[in-house]
Amino acid sequence: MAVFKKNIWMLYFLIVSITLILFTLLGYNKWDANREDFVDKQHLQVELFSTSVNSLLTSQEALLEVVGHQLVQQSDFTRTAALQIRPILDQLLDTHPAIAAFGLTNKEGNFIAVSSNLSLSTLPGLMERPHTRDSFIEALNSDKMILGRTYFHESLNSLIIPIRKAISLPGKGVQAVMTAGLQLNSTLVFNDNTHYGDYNELLLIRADHFRQFESSPIHSVARYNETVDANMYKVITAKVAEQHDISIEEIKLSNQSYSIATSDPQINAIVTAKYLRDYKLWVVGQTDLTYVDELFAKEFLVYFLVFILLHIGFYLLVNSIAKSEMVAKEQLVYQASHDPLTLLPNRQYMRNDIHHWLGNKTKPFSLLFIDIDNFKSVNDTHGHDFGDKVLKQISKRLINIHTSECLIVRESSDEFILLTPRNHEQDVKALAQRIIDDLAVPYEVNDSQFLLGCSIGISMFPEHGNDLDSLLRAADISMYKAKKQQNSFSIFTSEMQETHLYKMKVEQRLRLAVENKSLFMVFQPQVNADGSTYGVEALVRWIDEELGFIPPDVFIPIAENTGLMNRLGTFIIESSIQQIARLHQSEQIKFGLSINISVRQFMNKRFSEHLISTLERYQFNPDLLTLEITENLFIEDLSHVKPICESLHEKGIRISLDDFGTGYSSLSMLKALPINELKIDKSFIENIHCDQQSLTMVQNIIAIGKNFGMIVLAEGVESNQHFDVLKECKCDLMQGYYFSRPISSEELAVHLNQQETKYAEFSI
Ligand code: C2E
Ligand code: CA
Ligand code: CA
């Protein structure tokens, strides 16, 4: 059934085939029944005709017999006898209108007496003419009435059948022959209505193959002088015998009618034959098969037309269903392969279509991976409906740029892919620049105007890959570089590939490192303005057996992008808290611990839960813990970040905003979130002693921090000069190589013993 559902035409053809077969069977049955009707009709016709003929002839024979005997017994056959007999014969004529004339002959065939409508003197003897001689002789030798050949009597305008009966007296043999003329037009038996129409006829055929009677009026009387076609006679008798599996002799003896339908070229008719034994006559009914079949064809034509009409209707119905199914299918295919928002082809479409591009290596092409910069912030700030409108505008602009040979695809929310046959570097660069320029034109949505940029990573076929995945990967790698600059493009190079491979290697080794815990923590002291130790920042370290030392700047982003950050973060939190908790106990001093938390960790649902349980496990006072987060966190959904920060804050954990001044944070955000500490990025400290701009910047940040009631920490303090300037600026805390490099917990124990620690001063 599923197959038929798939293809309605199969079902259609099956139904058509079945109905065609049924219709053919019905047609055949009708055709057969029609012939059968005619056979039955003709059978009846022949039976009735045979009975009528037989009874007519039998009655005539009885008449001849009775009259003949009477005459023979009374007469001496003298000349006067003729005169005596004539009135008797005339009287008989009056009472028997079917008889045209009566005559009585002697054994030699000479007439002794005739009815008065004949002239005895002119009438030739029956032995004198061949056609009368045969029947006369036959009559002499038979005790049955014999029929002579039918002839046409002009003055009577009728066909006449001579009938003769030898009259014998017991012990004396044949005395005379009684003869008469049966006038066919005077008897109902032989009238023209014995046949049904032109297509049907009744025949009486004699043993000598001459017609005794033929019902069809269209045939001339001349036919009575001809025998029936011997061939036809043979064919009929042979076919009847063959189809009924009976011999001719058996048919003759059976006194039954036999019917056949034959399309023999000579006959082509329904033939019914019966043999009248007493008078040696074949009664044959014939109905023209062409007529019979034409009649069937006429009747059946109506059925046929209805059948054809129904089928045309059925075809139209199926066709319309198939068409609407096709439309629905096309719609589904379209929906599955197009992005509903921008109506651009989607990733699936590209995957299906890519073989057109890859098929011919002699036709290079370029793949442009277009990523809208900071699109997330549009959605976050204005909502998704607004974002959708912007995306529609972006796609329209891209459509305006692309030519018929290009394929433009919406890869995911704010990522588009453009495939272009352009492959010369200059052309592709020009195209990329045009895209950047066009997308940089201000957008206007809901009466607000704003700007967006995009980054484009470009890969080329076949240099950068032989399949879609490798081309996408290459474009993605080059996109990474473009993203760093924003609003720019970058074409894939082999160096990028190397960097990429290196990153892959790092990722692979990092996985092992996380598993094997071959990572470790170091701690960098954070000091008060008076030089006493305030706390430490935990920094992760990794020395790989194969790759050697890898800075966290390198592997942290890799861990973030490969889903390793949560496991790595768990390790960092657990090991830092465990080691510092141990120092708290062993050294009996309280100092703060700052842990860097990546955005990825922060977004994990179980982050807080895990942090709190770790603190509890190591009995670490939450008041001593600071989480360093970067401003990147605020690019994420603020409604998600805020409650987490607040709940942590409520538990006494502090939040420090790391790398302050390098990101996107706005002052309103500082107010919205429970931030305890601002950490000035080391890039601002570097030249603080010699560059007025850096100094002003640092002074401003410190002022902002104080305004919001936050502690301000400066990192990257490398010299006494830095320290002095920062003290003067009233910076609360400092961290840098000037005080200590990041050190192991054992080294930290020694370091703490040499320093004074003052944590409580800033506790809130
Ligand atoms: P960050 O959080 O800004 O960390 C401070 C970085 O400055 C550390 O580099 C530290 O060694 C370095 N530093 C300290 N004093 C000075 C100085 O006087 N001069 C200079 N030039 N540098 C100084 P590190 O350890 O290589 O870390 C680099 C970055 O890696 C960190 O920047 C942080 O973003 C990330 N990172 C390091 N450890 C972790 C960690 O455990 N978790 C997370 N999420 N990120 C970490
Ligand atoms: Ca930090
Ligand atoms: Ca920093």
TrEMBL record:
Residues 503-756 form the EAL domain. This is EAL domain-containing protein. SUPFAM superfamilies: EAL domain-like, Nucleotide cyclase. The keyword Transmembrane applies. The keyword Membrane applies. Pfam families: EAL, GGDEF. It comes from Vibrio gallaecicus. It comes from the Bacteria. Residues 363-494 form the GGDEF domain. InterPro entries: Cyclic-di-GMP_PDE-like, EAL_dom, EAL_sf, GGDEF_dom, Nucleotide_cyclase, Rev_trsase/Diguanyl_cyclase.
